[in-house]
Amino acid sequence: MLIRNQLGILLLLLIMASCSGEKEDRYIFETERILDTETGDAYYVKNPDTLTVVHIDGVAEPVTVSSTPFAESEELEQLMDRYEEKLEARKDSVLRVQKAQIKENRKQRYAAYSDDELMNRFNELKEEGAPFAQQMDMMAELVRREVVLEIDLPEILDIDPEDIDMDMEYDPEAES
């Protein structure tokens, strides 16, 4: 009888241990999604504070990260860190493409001008009080061509060094 009770208690402990182990494996953390294996719900990262939960019946609803059953888990923190890193990398990539496009547009815009012609045109426009964006655009091209040193721009443009923006977008069609 004593052995039977001990075996029963041991069996009960094993069942409880296996159930608690299943509880830890209930949520599968993927790249930008968390899957609840018990309910079939899938949580998708919407932004750093919100997830979208898609229930097994297809109904989707937003939930705050802090209200999820796995809110305090280390896995969620790692997933959110990876998500924010990817988001930052995407932003950097888009910014690099935009800057490259600005530089290419500028290069094409002034391709017909020689270095001296472009410098003379800049001086004319500065005297006429042309918009700052246009003056900065021309100066950026002159710096690219190494006609003017970037260090001289504050004096040439009559601005503070902090106001220099070599990646300022200028659209001549918008000015006219």
Notable traits:
176 residues, alpha+beta, five-stranded antiparallel beta sheet, 6 helices, 5 strands, rod-shaped
Please count the beta strands (DSSP E, at least 2 residues each): 5
Q: Report the principal-axis shape.
A: rod-shaped
Largest sheet: 5 strands, antiparallel
Rg (C-alpha, Å): 31 Å
Poorly predicted regions are: 10-14, 16-23
Mean pLDDT reading: 86
Count of helical regions? 6
> Separation of termini?
99 Å
Q: Helical residue percent?
A: 40-55%
H/E topology pattern: HEEEEEHHHHH
Q: What is the structural class? A: alpha+beta
- Beta-strand proportion: 5-15%
Strand order of the largest sheet: 1-2-3-4-5
Summarize the structure in words.
- The chain has 176 residues and is an alpha+beta fold.
- It has a domain at 110-175.
- Helices cover 54% and strands 13% of the residues.
- It has 6 helices and 5 strands.
- A hairpin with a 5-residue loop joins strand 2 (33-36) and strand 3.
- Helix 3 (115-128) runs antiparallel to helix 4 (132-144).
How do the strands and helices of this protein lay out in sequence?
Elements: H1 2-24, E1 27-29, E2 33-36, E3 42-47, E4 50-54, E5 60-64, H2 74-109, H3 115-128, H4 132-144, H5 153-157, H6 172-175
Antiparallel strand pairs: 1-2, 2-3, 3-4, 4-5
Helix pairs in contact: 3-4
